[in-house]
Design brief:
The structure holds two protein chains of two kinds.
Chain A (H helix, E strand, L loop, with lengths): L2 H11 L4 H23 L7 H29 L3 H4 L6 H8 L6 H7 L7 H5 L4 H21 L13 H8 L3 H4 L2 H5 L1 H5 L24
Helix pairs in contact in A: 2-3
Chain B lengths: L4 H26 L3 H32 L4
Helix pairs in contact in B: 1-2
Classes of the chains: A mainly alpha, B mainly alpha.
Chain lengths: 212, 69
């Protein structure tokens, strides 16, 4: 990794976020309280203070820790490094960072046309349900990763052009392009893909999945 | 909970479940991978839910013995 990319990465990550620190502290406090009440002296659970402390741990602290961790997980799982933690993604991420790559995803990544969370941005649909759908698909991917998957890796369905259009459609350069005007209906309905034919180059190398 | 030993055991089990759940969450914070994430969200969540449920049973039993419920 070159020093500039390293500095950008450091600036973006900023170490463990504040919410994660809160999760860590609350978890340790909860574990300590449970151990003090239950392990040190079992009689503690018979006294009112012990009962109330356990009630606070079980009903407030632990669920709060869980929800905060969930929000941290939702954000952190959008990062490119997270996608790259599965070996099968190494080829795709390596190509994103390859200065000689001519693929579409690489151009978007290296030119920072998408500032952050590049994998997630191009592989999730619009709005809240789009995000949730992407997360559910992610769980499906993890399951497939550990139980076996078919190769070559491919999308479950045809790529939705609306994902490209949410950034490109508002731009004048896109709107004034003759081919876009001519095929507007097909592009909007994803009947004609933005990628392939004589339009735009592939997003990733065909055999990226082989590089693990 | 001045009642039978089984309620104490339930509280103990709830405590153990809760500690395991919190440890899975800590694991996912320090080693954030798809596997630790899913374990913390699914197993951790289920164990926290179970510990809450067990403690509710203990509290209800305790209140019944005291004649509150």
């Amino acid at each position: 990794m070159n020093p500039f990319e390293e500095s950008v990465r450091a600036a973006n990550s900023g170490g463990i976020p504040l919410v994660a620190w809160i999760v860590i502290v609350l978890s340790i406090v909860s574990i300590a309280l449970i151990l003090i009440i239950l392990a040190k002296n079992p009689k503690n659970m018979s006294v009112p203070s012990g009962k109330w402390l356990l009630l606070i741990v079980f009903f407030i602290l632990s669920p709060t820790v869980y929800l905060l961790n969930f929000s941290v997980a939702i954000e952190d799982s959008k990062k490119v490094d997270f996608c790259n933690s599965c070996h099968v993604m190494h080829g795709y991420v390596n190509d994103l960072k390859n200065p000689d790559s001519e693929y579409l995803a690489s151009a978007h990544y290296q030119s920072r046309w998408i500032a952050n969370d590049q994998c997630f941005t191009c592989h999730s649909d619009y709005g809240l349900f789009g995000n949730m759908k992407a997360k559910m698909t992610g769980i499906r991917h993890v399951w497939a990763y550990y139980t076996g998957y078919e190769t070559p890796i491919k999308l479950y369905t045809t790529y939705n052009n609306k994902i490209c259009l949410r950034c490109h459609a508002p731009t004048l350069a896109f709107q004034e392009e003759d081919m876009h005007i001519e095929y507007a209906e097909d592009i909007l309905s994803s009947k004609t893909s933005c990628i392939g034919l004589d339009c735009h180059v592939r997003p990733h190398p065909v055999e990226a999945w082989k590089e693990q | 909970m001045n009642n039978p030993g089984w309620t104490r055991k339930l509280v103990l089990i709830a405590g153990i479940f809760n500690i395991i759940a919190l440890l899975t969450i800590l694991l996912s914070i320090f080693n954030f991978t798809p596997l630790t994430l899913i374990i913390s969200v699914s197993v951790g969540g289920a164990l926290i839910g179970l510990s809450v449920l067990l403690y509710i049973i203990v509290v209800v039993t305790d209140l019944r013995e005291r004649g509150v419920l």
